[in-house]
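Notes from hallway chat w/ T.B., transcribed later so I don't forget. T.B. wanted the structure written out for a chain they're using in a teaching module, and asked if we could keep both sequence and structure tokens in one place. Agreed to drop them here.
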Amino acid sequence: MINYQKKITCLTEQDTKALAEKIADIAQKGDVFALYGTLGAGKSTFARYFIQHLTSAQDIPSPTFTLVQTYETSLFDIYHYDMYRLKSPEEAYELDIEDAFYSAVSLVEWPEKISPLLPKDLWKISIEATGNNRIFVLETTSQEKKQRLERQFLNE
């Protein structure tokens, strides 16, 4: 199994926006982005910039209370999940995750709450807050995803 990892430090929120936009540009139908990080690490901020880049939506609320928000693009729908309040992974089935994982792009905050349901071929994005900086670690086990990521960051 390939385990590819890219580490990126964002010194400002503008850096986080630029990173989210770069990742959004390589998103394809069926991609699942599992966003790991502690409370306040920047998961919702990253997701907001990702979604804004691909849609005309400007107001991107956190799905903390609704659990899921959906957005349309010309190529696929985006499902933005916040699993923090789930009591068991099975509750996620009520949120249409099975369909979204295969027919849309999914951004999943607090993916550890549904880990048995996550597809094996996903994008894992771990975010660590260190003061005002954010360290993003992008991981994949897919050769195809690795190639998309390398092409996007070719000149860095």
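Follow-up for T.B.: The chain has one domain: 12-131+141-152. Might be a good example for the class.
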